[in-house]
Structures are given as structure tokens and as C-alpha cells.
Write a structure and sequence with these properties.
This protein has a six-stranded parallel sheet with strand order 2-1-3-4-5-6, sandwiched between helices. A six-stranded parallel sheet has the order 9-8-7-10-11-12, with helices on both faces. The protein has 14 helices and twelve strands. The protein folds into two domains: 167 residues, Glycogen Phosphorylase B (Rossmann fold); 178 residues, Rossmann fold (3-Layer(aba) Sandwich). The longest helix is centred in the middle third of the chain and has 17 residues.
């Protein structure tokens, strides 16, 4: 059995730098900050290596980090690490209190991760408990083998410090400026799961079906996480530009700084996500914080994150993103200013019902107490 004595320090293990600009890392970093504000002493361990496809050196780094923890230590291991390397966690399960933090199962990301289901199941059963960021993901980890009694849901918080600003008034003003192009915004790392290539194809459909509609789309997110996919996406936009005027309306900005991102949120009229799978979807919530209508593919937890009256959700196909349906949804929202403003008002109203980060940090701490007896 795990040593029963409480340990003051909480060890938080992540893959690489914790200040990376993805939803999962933003959640981790904000939770660390809030827990420190609540008096928790936290040591963040930033592991080197190509997670979640670690080589032997990366796994040895995790093993070394866990061995360095004192008996009975409380250790939160992010899913990018734990889902890929159960061995070191299994080796320390009787000495440490390890809590797995799962934003979404890695095996749900796509065919390239299919082999990780058994690996993740080992971590879920070896851990003292599991914290997930949505009820949808709670169901998935139970399906993978986690004990339902050991799973706690702690969704992200909202409010000042989210990464931009506090919840504000609806940002959509298309009804007041009908001659201005509708500003579409998509935010997320440029990787296959986020579906930006599907979005570009949907925008081509949109231009063909509604040539009179003026719009512009900015696709914001790191181009470095999957360089091959990012290069293919840039080529697709260039090909589109060569054969039509659509490509000139699509901009791949890459990752931007906080100030520039803040301005992009303020300028946007509609948030669009072609993501094939989300364990929660923090960018979707940030869109609602900014009072934006949402057009999204309903993969994973999206339907539980975005209420039906806040946006237009497109059912994901069994194996593909329904590009034509996504284009139709964009046409419906971008082409109807009044409908857009109605959705924007509902979006901001829903955002005001969401808990703030302070409340969610308290919930996270309570989950740790329940799961790890500290």
C-alpha cells in the first residue's frame, strides 16, 4: 500500500515546458498558479523528450523524476506523459500517490495513436486516481479501464487571466457593418486532429455555394508541432489561391503573442472549429467568453462544451469530417447577421454561467484530497 503520511509538496509532471500555448498546457499552468495562490507548494517537472512518442531517454527521465520524489509524495502526471509511459508509474504505485491528469485519451487522437489504448489503460489502473477535464472524458477513461470511483471531473475555469481577458459583451457586430467581410477565426495547433485542412476545403465549398458572401478566415496556431501537416496545409491554401480568389481570404498566422491574439478575438465575428476530436475544447469556451457564435464539428466533448443554442454544430462522420455540412453551417451563420448576433448574445450569456479558475482550483484540490488522501 502507498505510504499514508501527507507530504507538503505537490509534484506536477508535464511533457516539455509548461508554458506552451495549447489548451492542455494552459489548463496545467493555470491550475499550478491557482493552487500556489491557495498555499500549495508545487514543483513542476518539465520532462525532455518527444512525448507522447517517447524514446528510452524520455522514459528514463520520467523514471528518474519519480524516483526523486519522497515516499508518499503526491504526483500529478499529465496525460501526454502518463498515457505513453506506464512503466515508471507502475513501478512507483506503492510508494507514491500518482494522480493521472487526462485531457483526452491519446488513443482517441486518430489512427496514428490506436496502439496507445492498452498503454493508457495500464496508467489508469496504476494511478491512485484520475482527474479529467470533462464528463465526456470521464466516460472514456472508464471505458479504458479506470475505476469509476477513482475518477473526478474538473473542467477548466474562466475569467481574467484565461489567456486574454474577462468575459465581455458579445463581440459580433456584423449587423452594424453589413458591408464588412465577416471575420472567421480558428484557433488551435496546426495538427491533423484539429482538422484545418478540412476547414480549408469547407471554405472552398462556402465560396462556391455563396459567392456573394464576403468573409475572411484567420487560422491561428503553431505550425511547428507537425511541420509536415502544416506544410501540406500551406500548400493547400496556395493551390486554392491559384485557382480561385478563396486562398487570398485565408491566412495562416502561426502562433501569435497574447496581445495579437487578444486583438484577433476582438476582431472576430464567428469562431470555427473543424477539430475531429476534443476532450473539452478550451478554445471553444474562450470563443464564448468573447461572445462569439460557434461553428464546430461535434467531435468528442464538443456537444457538452457548446450548448446547441450558442452555435451550429456539425455531426462528425464515422471516419471523416463532413466538409459540405461544415460549409453549410458557415453559410448559415456568416450569411445571416441577425442570427449571428442572436448566437453571440447567447454565447456571452452562457459564458457567464461557467465557474472561474479559483473555483476550479478548489475543485481540483478537493479531488486530490479525495483520490490521494492528502
Amino acid at each position: 500500500m502507498t505510504t499514508a503520511r501527507p507530504v507538503d509538496e505537490l509534484v506536477f509532471v508535464v511533457a516539455g515546458a509548461i508554458d506552451q500555448k495549447t489548451g492542455g498546457y494552459l489548463y496545467d499552468a493555470r491550475m499550478v498558479r491557482e493552487l500556489r495562490d491557495r498555499g500549495r507548494r508545487i514543483r513542476v517537472v518539465e520532462l525532455e523528450g518527444a512525448w507522447p512518442a517517447p524514446d528510452s531517454r524520455a522514459i528514463e527521465g520520467l523514471r528518474t523524476a519519480l524516483r526523486a520524489c519522497p515516499d508518499g509524495a503526491l504526483v500529478v502526471v499529465d496525460g501526454l506523459v502518463g498515457g505513453a509511459a506506464p512503466g515508471p508509474i507502475e513501478a512507483e504505485r506503492d510508494r507514491l500517490r500518482v494522480v493521472a491528469l487526462v485531457h483526452h485519451p491519446l488513443c482517441d487522437e486518430g489512427p496514428e495513436r490506436d496502439g496507445l489504448a492498452a498503454t493508457e489503460a495500464r496508467t489508469l489502473t496504476a494511478a491512485a486516481g484520475v482527474i479529467v477535464t470533462s464528463a465526456f472524458t470521464a466516460g472514456r477513461v472508464v471505458e479504458l479501464g479506470a475505476d469509476p470511483a477513482s475518477v473526478r471531473v474538473v473542467e477548466p475555469g474562466t475569467g481574467p487571466g484565461w489567456g486574454t481577458e474577462a468575459i465581455g459583451d458579445p463581440g459580433c457586430d456584423g449587423a452594424d457593418a453589413p458591408d464588412r467581410p465577416v471575420e472567421l477565426l480558428s484557433v488551435g495547433s496546426v495538427v491533423p486532429r484539429k482538422g484545418q485542412a478540412d476547414l480549408v476545403r469547407a471554405l472552398e465549398h462556402l465560396a462556391a455555394a455563396a459567392p456573394e458572401l464576403e468573409w475572411r478566415c484567420r487560422i491561428v496556431g503553431s505550425l511547428e508541432r507537425d511541420p509536415a501537416y502544416a506544410a501540406a496545409l500551406a500548400e493547400a491554401v496556395a493551390r486554392t489561391a491559384a485557382r480561385s480568389h478563396v486562398g487570398s481570404r485565408i491566412e495562416l498566422t502561426g502562433e501569435v503573442g497574447d496581445d495579437e491574439l487578444r486583438e484577433l478575438w476582438r476582431a472576430a465575428d464567428v469562431f470555427v472549429s473543424a477539430s475531429r476530436y476534443e476532450g473539452y475544447g478550451m478554445a471553444l469556451t474562450e470563443a464564448m467568453i468573447h461572445g462569439l457564435p460557434v461553428v464546430a464539428v461535434a467531435g468528442g466533448a464538443v456537444r457538452s462544451t457548446v450548448p446547441a443554442d450558442v452555435g451550429v454544430l456539425v455531426a462528425r462522420g464515422a471516419a471523416t469530417t463532413p466538409v459540405a455540412e461544415l460549409a453549410d453551417a458557415l453559410a448559415r451563420v456568416a450569411g445571416d447577421p441577425r442570427f449571428r448576433v442572436e448566437l453571440a448574445a447567447r454565447s456571452a450569456a452562457h459564458a457567464r454561467t461557467l465557474p472561474d479558475w479559483s473555483a476550479q482550483a478548489a475543485a481540483f484540490e478537493a479531488a486530490l484530497r479525495e483520490l490521494a488522501d492528502v
